[in-house]
Amino acid sequence: MMDHLLWLIPAFPLVGFILLALWGKHLSRFWTAIIGAGSVSLSAILTLFIGLNFLSSTPADGHYSQTLWTWFEVATFIPKITLYLDALSLVFVFVITFIGALIHIYSVAFMAADKDYARFFACMNLFVVSMLLLVLADNLLLLYLGWEGVGLCSYLLIGFWYENPSNGYAARKAFIITRIGDTAMAIGLFVLFYQFGTLSIPDILALTPTTWHEGATITTVTALLLLAGGVGKSAQLPLQTWLPDAMAGPSPVSALIHAATMVTAGVYLVARMHVIFQLSPIAQMVVAGIGAATLLIAGFSALTQYDIKRVLAYSTISQIGYMFLALGLGAWTAAIFHFMIHAFFKALLFLAAGAVIEALNHEHNMFRMGGLKSKLPVIFWTFLVGSASLAALPIISAGFYSKDQILWYAWASEHGNTTLWLIALFGAFLTAVYTTRMLLLTFWGDAKTAVSHYPSKLMTIPLAILAFFSLFAGFIELPHNFGHLTLFSDLLHQVLPETILKAGIHGELLFQLLAMLVTFGGIYMAYILWYRKPQLTEKLKQSAPLIHLYRFWFSGWGFDQVYQVLLVKPVVFIASINKNDVIDKFYQGIAILMVRLNRALSFTQSGSLRWYIIGLVVGAILILSIQVIL
Amino acid sequence: MNTPIAIEIVMLLAGLLFVLGIVGVIIRKNIIFMLLSVEIMLNAAGLAFIAAGSRWAQPDGQVMFIFILAMAAAEVSVGLALILRIYHQHRSLDIDKLKEMKG
Amino acid sequence: MDIFFYITAFVTLFSTIMVITRHNPVHALLYLVISLLSLSVIFFLLGAPFVALLEIIIYAGAIMVLFIFVIMLLNLGKETAAQEKAWLKPTVWIGPVILSTILLAELFYLIITAQPPSYNLQTVDSKAVAISLFTPYLIGVELAAMLLMAGVVGAAHIGQQKKTVLHRFLKEEEPQ
């Protein structure tokens, strides 16, 4: 029964989008909010119903699917608009609709003063529709539609305050950089279609193991092309540069699109097509390598930022790096678990940061915040919870359970090794340091900027709900030596394979203790550097090698500059040379030649009959000459 | 009538007449003379057709000549009517005076 | 019989040359009639008596009479001859003669080098022509009929004398 309601999940926000896009200007703010937030909330409630139904009586084949209509028919290629809900997409749909609904409710208050209220909610609703299509798609073409849809919405919402040119620049940057990955992904889809003659995900997953050999070139190439799409969307190395700039959008947008949902589309894609990646050890190694490198690089950059949202942006890149690392290790469920937990606490952190920024009159600089602990207690406590989860504070935060799993698999999975484990551990240390630094600078110390207005109930209640999940969502999946609860991975093992461990590995407890130690070490170090002895930090900053390192990290490891020199400058240069289009010259030349020829030939049209006859005679002579010669 | 007239000679005669016709058309400025020269050319073509027809003992050559004849009659009647109009409009039969196109 | 052919061929060529060199249109016309008549003799010699008669009746008879009518209508006489004399300067001849000579040389070359050797010419009587005309060439005959019809209608239409002139700039020059 429930699978017939599946279409309603994306339909609610779609209707919301259409209403707001067409009549948004004529609706009052009250009705705009009702439609905008209400549609997504309805979807969330429906998802809860369908999800409960799915969990209590899982269908025999492990999924609900509903074919709405045939999209188009070209010979044997007949993609259908089919929604497909299995355990993996259920997790994503749940996160999208549930967190989406909370963020929409928060936005009702947050965006209250904005003049483009309806446009904001229309874009947000469209984003939710696209994202739902992405995760509910039964075939890769529909997934690609959602994929491009979220890219469009991301562009529209980053550049939401388009009066400021730099926001438009950031939006274009995000759009173009993700487009690089999307192009690679489209080529990957072509390859898949060429090989299998279908884009249906279940068909491809069923056909791949029998058709392709493990480690074959075609497998690796396809996997890498799909990965490139994921890397672009998920802001991983080397396409990560757009995400920090994407913070130009409103905070709820950052929370929903650039933290909780859209940027994890790459994780979803890799997990969804896991069969292909499993067949290609090289591709899987690349996934793990990208994840490890990204989490480290982004961690260092997060350490040096002063804009609170950029810290969170870099931490998002870093945490998605953890997810990619887990995917590369074959720890599929761990990656999805971390995705869910991350969605909770990162949405929470962005929303809380947005509330702080608004309370301080659009002040983004953390060094000019401080002392907000007592002034904004609700935000402080929720932010504290989110930070604890981000820093993976042991036992009490959800982040600990998800990240610990990844750390453990980095060592223990069959793809794991010491290097990856050390990187992941060091990344955890960095996370603890920059999270604590952010917390200390924002809420402790002296108040440097006066609080101008306080958040309303509509903003604090979603924060509280998210904080609750950030703390307790981890308890559905507990480590083997500590409760051994596997609700979440049991659910996902319907879709995703189990992680294969190396033989004879013990001492999980030791690794957990090490991870705890590292976290506490990071927190203590940040406490020393930015609270107890800030003058020490200043002194460190003055020393020559450190200041260069600091600047290097601050600029995001110089990726932007390198791309500027290697790609942007040449392209702009070529474009400036080719302003009048070299290729066009050829066609213009043809046109000019024709005009000249026409002028020349028109002289023969003198109206002189004699001239015409001479022409005839010469023609006859020519023809006869040819005959004589031949 | 089985006289041995070589067909090459007849064809040469036709060619000569045709070329004479062309010369007439080119050198004359008077439209009437040009029209006369065109008639010569048509006759030359007809002569070639008839010689060929006799050579192969086929009636087709003569049939073609009859078509040429019909065509010449139509051409002459329209051409002469045009000459009349030209003379009435321009008061001259000089073909070079009719050059109105500047090219 | 051979000698007859050469004589008539000479007469034809001579009268044709006279046609294109005469200054007086009536003289030229008369030479053309001679040319046509001698041509019809050649047709007769070539074994095409039917066509030879047609040549005399239609060409020399009907078409030439049309020319004469026009020449009389336009009253082309001594002035025209004088004008022609002025126009036909020796320099006018050079270009066309060169071109024609080349063309003629090529024609001769092609005719002489033609592969099938000489055969005797044979008579094709009017019966064969008539059968051929009204069996395989029937469509052609009908088309020729339509062409003549169009020619008649066209000539009648074009030849109409109109008081008004088509071109407004020529109005002043138009005599009453």
Automatic annotation (TrEMBL), chain A:
Ranges where the NADH-Ubiquinone oxidoreductase (complex I) chain 5 N-terminal domain occurs: 71-121
Give the main localization category. membrane
| MF (Gene Ontology) | NADH dehydrogenase (ubiquinone) activity; NADH dehydrogenase activity
Claim: Protease is one of the keywords in the record = no
Q: Which InterPro entries match?
A: NADHpl_OxRdtase_5_subgr, ND/Mrp_TM, NU5C-like, Proton_antipo_N
Alphabetic keyword roster: Membrane, Transmembrane, Transmembrane helix
An example of a Pfam family matching this protein is Proton_antipo_M
Question: Alphabetically, which GO biological process terms does the record hold?
Answer: ATP synthesis coupled electron transport; electron transport coupled proton transport
Localization per record: Endomembrane system; Membrane
Q: How does it sit in the membrane?
A: Multi-pass membrane protein
In Swiss-Prot or TrEMBL terms, this protein is called NADH dehydrogenase subunit L
Report the source organism.
Olivibacter domesticus (Pseudosphingobacterium domesticum)
TrEMBL record, chain B:
Question: EC number(s) per UniProt?
Answer: 7.1.1.-
* Annotated keywords: Cell membrane, Membrane, NAD, Quinone, Translocase, Transmembrane, Transmembrane helix, Transport
Which reaction(s) are listed as its catalytic activity? a quinone + NADH + 5 H(+)(in) = a quinol + NAD(+) + 4 H(+)(out)
- Matching Gene3D superfamilies: 1.10.287.3510
What does the record say about its membrane topology?
A: Multi-pass membrane protein
Q: Which GO terms describe its biological process?
A: ATP synthesis coupled electron transport
| Primary location class | membrane
* Membrane-crossing residue ranges in chain numbering: 6-27, 32-52, 64-87
The subcellular location is:
Cell membrane; Membrane
Q: Which family does it belong to?
A: Belongs to the complex I subunit 4L family.
| Protein name per UniProt | NADH-quinone oxidoreductase subunit K
TrEMBL record, chain C:
TM spans, by residue?
6-21, 28-50, 56-76, 92-114, 134-158
Show the GO cellular component annotation of the record: plasma membrane
Catalysed reaction, written as an equation: a quinone + NADH + 5 H(+)(in) = a quinol + NAD(+) + 4 H(+)(out)
The protein's matches in NCBIfam families, at most eight in alphabetical order, are given as: PRK06638.1-1 (NF005162)
Task: Could you list this entry's UniProt keywords, alphabetically sorted.
Answer: Cell membrane, Membrane, NAD, Quinone, Translocase, Transmembrane, Transmembrane helix
Assigned protein family: Belongs to the complex I subunit 6 family.
For this entry, the protein name equals: NADH-quinone oxidoreductase subunit J
Q: Which InterPro entries match?
A: NADH_UbQ/plastoQ_OxRdtase_su6 (IPR001457), Nuo/plastoQ_OxRdtase_6_NuoJ (IPR042106)
